[in-house]
UniProtKB/TrEMBL annotation:
Organism: Candidatus Minimicrobia naudis
GO annotation (BP), single: methylation
Official protein name in the record: Ribosomal RNA large subunit methyltransferase K/L-like methyltransferase domain-containing protein
Entry keyword set: Methyltransferase, Transferase
GO molecular function, one term: methyltransferase activity
InterPro entries noted in UniProt: RlmKL-like_Mtase, SAM-dependent_MTases_sf
Length: 397
């Protein structure tokens, strides 16, 4: 059993875990964590999980949160004093608590007791200070916690019933790699939008793509989806309306091959997603479509109702035409994971594309019935993630 610490949008994190490990094996225990019943959980293969760990034990809720944490402290100190007392290496230790507000000093105290116990055995331990109850992903990653026997992070996660799950970390997200794959690429273009590599990785997982599969990104832009596909051994086609974007994708993919030694098939060509015709080979090969569709113009503040109506209509028209165009060309077993726009107003409410309610008329059905929105609190244009399968086209009256 593993625990996964969820990212900024927990529903997307859960959906990704369910797509990779099976819904029956994933249980959300809070807005911050889920348990995953699997043989191995790899943090490097997940975009929506910020840390993961192997579960050690579960502490039932006591009379108070303080008593429950004290019980957890006793178990942790006893287990790790025994485990590390004969270590020949200097130990680096971090402790993270995920739950309601907890004084970081109470979390730090567990490490201090363990450090003093190990000192009596001649074992040196460096305790990473807790400024907050949970160490940041950057702190965990940069200290390589969970990546070796001598670099340990103990994760304590509270579930909705007040029980505590105790786990030993198996690593945190490699934020440096994401930065390199985003800002380190030779070509970027803020004007056309920049799909985060982390979200591209999530979407590929939501599509169910596996190594040696073929996917297609019909709005490939600078090639982020193709890049993330190559990193996990998935072959990819990319197309875009703009010749400039195809040149950017080509240069970025050449960089990916050189930098990360990838060895997958990829191909990029100019084409309009609303009228593109797949070749016979592409129709036979492609089993996944992963893309960020047209998001419309960017906004720094919510637009007027008139402007919003215009932009929604324009995006809805283009994306509907795209879905209608490819419907008869794709295999019946194709899974589509597409990002479409949704617009947030000042009250935090979203305007969604009308086509979402008319997917059956377009010949599709949603296979994940969740509201998957990827956005920042101050962001007007959000990405709404749709996971679709071809379906019988509904007849209109």
């Amino acid at each position: 059993m593993f625990i996964a610490i969820l990212g900024r949008q927990p529903e997307i994190s859960i959906a990704e875990l369910e797509a990779v490990y099976g819904a029956q094996n994933v249980q959300k225990i809070s807005n911050q964590a889920a348990t995953v019943n699997c043989d191995n959980l790899s943090i490097d293969n997940l975009g929506g999980t910020i840390k993961c760990g192997q579960v050690i034990t579960k502490i039932k809720s006591q009379k108070s949160d303080r008593n429950t944490l004290l019980q957890a402290s006793k178990i942790i100190v006893e287990k790790y004093t025994k485990k590390l007392s004969h270590s020949q290496k200097k130990i680096t230790l971090g402790i993270s608590f995920y739950g309601n507000k907890t004084d970081p000093r109470n979390v730090q105290k567990i490490g201090i007791i363990l450090k003093n116990n190990l000192k009596k055995s001649g074992v040196s331990l460096r305790l990473i200070p807790n400024k907050t109850a949970a160490l940041s992903t950057a702190t965990s990653h940069n200290n390589k916690l969970g990546r070796s026997e001598a670099k340990i992070e103990i994760i304590i996660a509270k579930n909705v019933y007040g029980d505590l799950i105790i786990a030993e970390s198996r690593g945190a997200q490699n934020i440096n790699s994401y930065t390199q794959r985003d800002r380190g690429r030779p070509k970027r273009d803020a004007f056309v939008g920049m799909l985060p590599p982390k979200l591209a990785q999530i979407m590929i997982n939501l599509s169910g793509a596996k190594p040696d599969d073929y996917l297609w990104d019909p709005f490939c832009g600078t090639g982020t989806v193709l890049q993330e596909a190559a990193l996990i051994g998935v072959n990819a086609y990319g197309s875009d309306l703009s010749d400039k974007m195809i040149s950017y994708t080509t240069e970025n993919m050449n960089w990916v091959e050189k930098t990360f030694s990838t060895n997958t098939f990829w191909q990029a060509h100019q084409a309009d997603a609303t009228s593109v015709k797949l070749t016979g080979e592409q129709k036979e090969r492609i089993s996944r479509i992963v893309c960020e569709t047209y998001l419309g113009q960017p906004f720094s503040a919510p637009p007027s109702p008139e402007k919003l109506h215009e932009v929604v209509g324009n995006c809805n028209h283009i994306i509907s035409d795209f879905l209608q165009n490819i419907r008869s060309q794709i295999r019946p077993d194709t899974t589509l994971c597409i990002a479409v726009p949704a617009w947030q107003n000042r009250e935090g409410k979203f305007t969604h594309l009308p086509l979402i309610k008319n997917l059956k008329k377009l010949g599709y059905q949603q296979i994940i019935d969740k509201n998957l929105l990827y956005y920042r609190e101050d962001q007007v244009v959000a990405r709404e993630i749709l996971v679709l399968k071809p379906a019988d086209i509904a007849k209109t009256a």
